[in-house]
Specification:
332 residues, Rossmann fold, 35% helix, 13 strands, ATP-binding, 6-stranded mixed β-sheet, binds adenosine-5'-triphosphate
Length: 332
């Protein structure tokens, strides 16, 4: 079974009513409600290949969760089509559920009053996982996520970091080909975040799972994703390698080189300007919209000049994304 995700022209509109302000407004809204149409997701198309981890990014309210809800079968699209591991999720919810795992960092899918281990057993029965397979997988997850120190605790008494680790294990116990993660590390401390990222990397690289991840944590994106899809106001505005997005919006890098010969004549390179010079110290920066990435610039400088020392400053991904969000505002 292929674990790919195919999204074609997917759209979701919500019809809501808004309450007018004040008492008189509230009364009027009762008899004549003001209807509002919200285009939460508009005509988005992308693919995720089997065994790929894709980060779905965008500012608050961009439409990320709505997209994930359509792909997990929770919501039906207003238009367009999606296939997850070959199944149309909102038409065949049960079949889709067998192929996917989902973790919503903001809420648990576990039984609140039961010890975690009992939740795992219920899930084993629901998904009809053979006992030995279940035990082996649980041992693997315990190894990677340290679950056994708290898996006899009721879910309601777990800390956030413990609870999400259990949610991750629960979502993967039936060995799904495709995993949806909606802000999985929200509110976790840095150590647990790193543990979860390591776990996810293992699931993609060693187990070949396909992962669609949403997050506002740019360190997470850098550590896990090679490709990102950016949505803003419900529209897909970028789809490509993280490096391309950096190139397009991360225009603030610098390469600082110390030349072996301080009298060397230094000229601009393709897409690279000389932005400062003091004796043997030369600072290069991006020149124009087709400027190379900082790593390409580094290579170009080393190839052209004999240098004794070289350092680089890169715009951090938070800055890059902020610029990308602002530049894509007209996707509205
Ligand atoms: N059930 C609903 N009824 C009405 N509007 C909704 C509903 N669900 C989502 N929306 C609206 O659709 C838009 C997209 O919401 P969504 O939750 O998909 O955004 P998001 O990208 O996941 O945001 P965040 O990063 O804040 O979680 C928002 O404007 C939201 O208010």
């Amino acid at each position: 079974m292929s674990g790919s995700i195919e999204v074609r022209g997917l759209s979701r509109t919500f019809h809501t009513t808004v309450r007018r302000p004040g008492f008189a407004g509230a009364l009027r809204s009762l008899v004549d409600p003001e209807r509002v149409v919200k285009h939460a997701v508009s005509d988005i198309t992308f693919d995720v290949a089997e065994g790929e981890l894709l980060a779905l990014l965008g500012p608050n309210g961009a439409g990320k969760s709505t997209t994930i809800k359509m792909l997990t079968g929770i919501l039906t699209p207003t238009a367009g089509e999606a296939r997850v591991a070959g199944v149309v999720p909102y038409r065949e919810r049960e079949r889709n559920a067998r192929n996917i795992g989902a973790v919503f960092g903001q809420r648990t899918q576990l039984w609140w009053d039961l010890p975690v281990r009992e939740s795992f057993q219920i899930l084993r029965d629901i998904y009809e996982v053979p006992k030995a397979e279940h035990a082996a997988r649980l041992a693997e997850f315990d190894d990677l996520l340290d679950l056994s120190s708290f898996w006899d605790t009721r879910v309601r008494h777990l800390s956030l970091g413990q609870r999400v680790r259990c949610d991750l294990a629960a979502a993967l116990l039936h060995d799904p080909a495709v995993v949806f993660l909606d802000e999985p590390t929200i509110g976790m401390d840095v150590v647990v975040k790193e543990q979860v990222r390591e776990f996810l990397r293992h699931q993609v690289e060693q187990r070949g799972r396909t992962v669609l991840l949403t997050t506002h944590d740019m360190t997470e994106v850098e550590r896990l994703a090679e490709r990102v899809v950016l949505i803003n106001h419900g529209r897909l505005v970028l789809d490509g390698p993280l490096e391309d997005i950096r190139r397009k919006f991360g225009s603030t890098w610098q390469v600082r080189a110390t030349l072996a010969d301080p009298h060397t004549e230094v000229t601009a390179l393709r897409g690279i300007a000389v932005v400062g010079r003091e004796g043997p110290q030369v600072v290069f920066g991006p020149d124009g919209p087709d400027a190379p990435t900082v790593h390409q610039a580094l290579k170009a400088v080393i190839e052209r000049y004999e240098v004794t020392d070289i350092a680089l400053d890169e715009a951090d991904l938070e800055d890059v994304m902020r610029a990308a969000y602002v530049h894509t505002e007209d996707g509205r």
